[in-house]
């Protein structure tokens, strides 16, 4: 069987800003025709079956999928339905490109979640124009989502992203019984820092502390977020208390090691951080807010005990 002359699946990482399109068709010549008009502007991947399409979509998270309907094995409608059930792929726009031109077919295509429906034989300039439009909309959605979930000052996760992640991880703990840890952190004497150095220097210090926290998030599921003002919070899934205390101590040390001068701090010549750690061990009837309260109490304890330390 002749293989289309485009980049194949698997391996290699796309550059962050590269737009990736997945073309799915059981007939390689059909892929070739579409790839020829798209490969100047996009990175093109292909799949020749529904099964392969689902695997490639999951590993490469393309920006858009051009999807044939009639294929041996899983058909295009089913592929689209499965994509829409996957939280990571739900927002990937799917355009059907198919010989099935009846109104009922097209209706079905939209019902299973496609953004567009093109019938073969396709006009290539129209394919290119529609792809361009849907890619632009996808990029705008991605941008809005980033703005909605990232803290504007520090560039780390914001409160909204934290709330979503905690909700997800809390439900996972309830289901699987793995320990879930939280670290609450608060900069010591930060009001005095602002008063002495000015708000703009204060903002710079907040960015430095945020980076120190983020650098200690070693697992892909760990998350450091700005909780508000000069308070930060970390979610550490599947981490027992001892492990979380270790992470907190590493963060505390990293901030201290930045040696950001703090002339008016009563305790230390440098900016420091106090941290509170709490762990949910197993499914409980308590709410996820109670875990936050526990971490907050531990933080209060660290402040009372002299600051620049970790308490649980
Ligand atoms: P403690 O050691 O007990 O935590 O003392 P503190 O002075 O850090 O605590 P407090 O909560 O009284 O003060 C927090 C200060 O953080 C208030 C405000 O000046 C500062 N702050 C909060 N958000 C921002 C921000 O976005 N930028 C800057 N520059 N400062 C902020
Ligand atoms: Mg086909
Ligand atoms: Mg505070
Ligand atoms: Mg503070």
Tell me about the largest β-sheet. 5 strands, parallel
Mean pLDDT across all amino acids: 93
Small molecules in complex? 3'-deoxy-guanosine-5'-triphosphate, magnesium ion
Helix content: 40-55%
Please tally the helical runs, counting DSSP H or I stretches of 4 or more residues: 10
Which regions have little confidence, pLDDT < 50, spanning 5+ residues?
7-15
For the biggest β-sheet, the strand order reads: 2-1-3-4-5
Strand content: 15-25%
Shape, per Cα inertia axes: elongated
- Alpha-beta content class: alpha/beta
Order of helices and strands: EHEHEHEHEHHEHHEEHEHE
Number of strands: 10
Our Rg estimate from Cα atoms comes to: 25 Å
Distance between the termini: 63 Å
What does this structure look like?
There is one protein chain. The protein is α/β, with parallel strands linked by helices and 312 residues long. Helix content is 46%, strand content 17%. The chain has helices spanning 28-38, 50-60, 76-85, 103-111, 124-149, 159-176, 190-197, 199-215, 241-257, 288-304; strands spanning 20-24, 43-47, 64-67, 94-98, 116-119, 180-187, 223-228, 231-237, 273-280, 310-311. The strands form 2 sheets. It has a 5-stranded parallel β-sheet, with helices on both faces. Strands 7-8-6-9-10 form a 5-stranded mixed β-sheet, sandwiched between helices. Helix 2 packs parallel to helix 3 (76-85) and helix 7 (190-197) packs across helix 8 (199-215). The termini are far apart. Bound molecules: 3'-deoxy-guanosine-5'-triphosphate and magnesium ion (3 copies).
